[in-house]
Design brief:
By secondary structure, this protein is an alpha/beta fold. The chain is built from 13 helices and 16 strands. The strands form 4 sheets. The chain has a 7-stranded mixed beta sheet, with helices on both faces. The protein has a 4-stranded mixed beta sheet with strand order 1-2-3-15. A hairpin with a 2-residue loop joins β2 and β3. α11 runs parallel beside α13 and α12 packs antiparallel against α13. The longest helix is centred in the N-terminal third of the chain and has 18 residues. It is globular and about 65 Å long. Bound molecules: pyridoxal-5'-phosphate. Pyridoxal-5'-phosphate (PLP) binds next to α5.
Length: 434
């Protein structure tokens, strides 16, 4: 065993050498050092704001839906580790991947029958884009190679996904002119329950019609736009997209990397609209937050189209494709989710968030408070003071990671009512201080 390093030493080395998400090098704000995590709690190596344990309001970026250190997921990982942690997927296959893929086909919209396992959400979006472009190329329409999306989205940090993220004010604004130029519709009008705006529906139809001969696909996050602004829209627009895509020979891609596995109250957000896409991306909660894994699902029409082309293969194959450890944990995580009344748990958390976040609407500087499923958002009328907001949340015993003008939470589904209330108090405290 290597000599253990003390907290001071670890943080000094971290600052010197370790690059953190969306940060400079060296980092400016010191990260908190986590020693272990169990249930909905993160245990800190050193107390911060007088707390050595924090209730997790983030599910580690939407992923840890069952909480941490879960016995069922631990068993799945341990059992698979003793058989094999990895073998290559070219020319070989294994039970964890086959089982997982069958399960994904069973629980997603019926037309999605074929699954490409990728190693992260961004890569699954790259694969989705490659599928769509190659499909049209195979059908003798190589001009169809642009994508249409609506503003305010987020689809990952690699090149093609960056090109369909919100082009203004987002993290990738720097790269305008370098990224592929895509077609952007206006941001969908806000409100999950708001009646669909006929003028906006016409705007979507018009834009898809106008660009049809150069569009390979429309790609959107259904119902909830996550990292692009944490906003919700009417499922009706998904039906509009489906009809317009069918009418104009354009494929429809749903990026359910954030919304999948129950987060919005439906198992997949597409379910709110009863719309099936041609291609769907899954990730984040796929392994219950244990390991990195994502999936790109497609219809038989898309798969057949690609396989009839001049290059009748999908030329993609990550080294760690179909990783057995990740697949085994993902399969166990989905089974665990479906074995319980997850929809009731999400409803319970939704009610807790509605009650607990309501007072935030009265705070000065708060523009909007919104809740859908196990997602709670407080939007300020100014950029969040990250340091002050984080300090206030940690002081209240909760881990939050605000961004831009947003303080938000999407807790693990196992979060108890008292803990949901505590998270809400922390969000309010962060909104007051941030
Ligand atoms: C997080 C996210 C991605 C990117 O997934 P990574 O695993 O971080 O690469 C893509 N799309 C959506 C909607 C996401 O929320």
């Amino acid at each position: 065993m290597p000599e253990p390093l003390g907290p001071r030493e670890l943080l000094a080395l971290d600052r010197q050498h370790v690059w953190h998400p969306y940060g400079p090098m060296p980092g400016t704000a010191a990260p908190l050092l986590v020693e272990s995590a169990s249930g909905v709690r993160l245990r800190l190596a050193e107390p911060a704001e007088g707390r050595d344990e924090l209730v997790d309001g983030m599910s580690s970026w939407w992923s840890a839906v069952h909480g941490y250190n879960h016995p069922v997921l631990n068993d799945a990982a341990r059992g698979q580790l003793e058989r094999m942690s990895h073998v290559m997927f070219g020319g070989l296959t294994h039970e964890p991947a086959v089982r997982l893929v069958k399960r994904l086909v069973d629980i997603t919209p019926e037309p999605l029958q074929h699954v490409f396992l990728a190693d992260s959400g961004s890569v699954s979006v790259e694969v989705a884009v490659k599928m769509c472009l190659q499909y049209w190329r195979s059908l003798g329409k190589p001009r169809k190679q642009r994508l249409l999306t609506w503003r305010g989205g987020y689809h990952g940090d690699t090149w093609q996904p960056m090109s369909v993220c919100d082009p203004d004010g987002g993290m990738h604004e720097l790269w305008q002119g370098v990224l592929p130029r895509q077609v952007f519709a206006d941001t969908p009008p806000p409100g999950f329950d708001a009646p669909a705006d006929p003028a906006y529906a016409d705007h979507l139809r018009e834009l898809i019609g106008r660009h049809a001969d150069e569009l390979a696909a429309v790609i959107v996050e259904p119902v909830v736009q996550g990292a692009g602004g944490m906003s919700f829209h009417s499922p009706e627009y998904l039906r509009v997209l489906r009809e317009a895509c069918d009418a104009h020979d354009v494929l429809l891609v749903f990026d359910e990397i954030a919304t999948g596995f129950g987060r919005t109250g439906a198992l997949f957000a597409a379910g709110h609209a009863a719309v099936a896409p041609d291609v769907m991306c899954l990730g984040k909660a796929l392994t219950g937050g244990y390991l990195t894994l994502a999936a790109t699902l497609c219809t038989t029409a898309v798969a057949d189209g690609i396989s009839r082309g001049e290059l009748p293969v999908l030329a993609h194959g990550p080294t760690f494709m179909g990783n057995p450890l990740a697949a085994a944990v993902a399969d166990a995580s989905i089974e665990l989710l479906l074995s319980q009344d997850w929809a009731q748990e999400v409803k319970r958390i939704e009610a807790g968030l509605r009650a607990g976040l309501a007072p935030a609407a009265e705070l000065p500087g708060v523009r909007d408070v919104r809740v859908l499923g196990a997602i709670g958002v407080v939007q300020l009328d100014h950029a969040v003071d990250m340091a002050a907001a984080t300090r206030a949340a940690v002081g209240a015993g909760v881990w939050l990671r605000p961004f831009r003008d947003l303080i938000y939470t999407m807790p693990p589904y196992i979060t108890g009512d008292d803990e949901v209330a505590r998270i809400c108090d922390a969000v309010c405290a962060a909104a007051r201080e941030g």
